[in-house]
Amino acid sequence: MEKTLLIIKPDGVQRGLVGEILGRIEKKGFKISAMKLEKISKEKAGIHYAEHAGKGFYSELLEFITSSPSVLAVIEGKNVIDGVRKMAGKTNPLESDLGTIRGDFAVAVSHNVVHTSDGPESSKREIENFFSNEEIQTHILCTEEWTCEA
Predict the structure, then answer these.
(1) Of 140, 122, 147, the residue nearest 25 (C-alpha)
(2) What is the pLDDT of residue 125?
(3) Is 139 among the residues known to form the active site?
(4) 4 in a known ligand binding site
């Protein structure tokens, strides 16, 4: 089963959107395999956003993501990377469709509520940055046969 990283960023946590966002993920049929509330360290944030190092918004990005606790979650399911990205909406919330997380809850790129992995390689790298193997629970939901084909 495919896995992806979901971060509910400090603005999502501070605004009380954690339950709403996780509820959408679960209602879609995806499962949470690991989750924690963490104030992301500058070191982990630097690793996470390494591809943006040197860009004009990089320091602001690090400052924001380390400013307050985030909820980090490993989400698992069939086609979960693309599915969660579609649920999140476009990075720029003003271009996101209503019904997506960003389209419904965010108004600025710098405070766009969630991060989602953009592919299998980044998902693996990002999950390893924030979670040990022992923290990820492998389990089968009784509803899986009703949400996924064999």
Answers:
(1) 147
(2) 97
(3) no
(4) no
pTM: 0.92
| E strand spans, the chain | 2-8, 31-38, 70-77, 114-116
Tokens, residue 18: 């954690």
The amino acid at 36: K
What CATH number labels 2-140? 3.30.70.141
Q: Which of 48, 52, 111, 115 is catalytic?
A: 115
Give 120-145 pLDDT, tens digit per residue.
Answer: 999 999 999 999 999 999 877 777 77
Instruction: Tell me: is residue 102 an annotated ligand-binding position.
Output: yes
Q: What share of the chain is helix, strand, coil (3-state, %, to 5)?
A: 45, 20, 35
The predicted-structure confidence for 12-62, as pLDDT tens digits, reads as follows 999 999 999 999 999 999 999 999 999 999 999 999 999 899 888 899 999
Nearest to 65 by CA among 82, 88, 84, 48: 48
- Identify the pLDDT of residue 139: 77
Distance CA 143, CA 148 (A): 9
Beta-carbon contacts of residue 112 (< 8 Å; ≥ 6 apart): 9, 11, 91, 92, 93, 102, 106
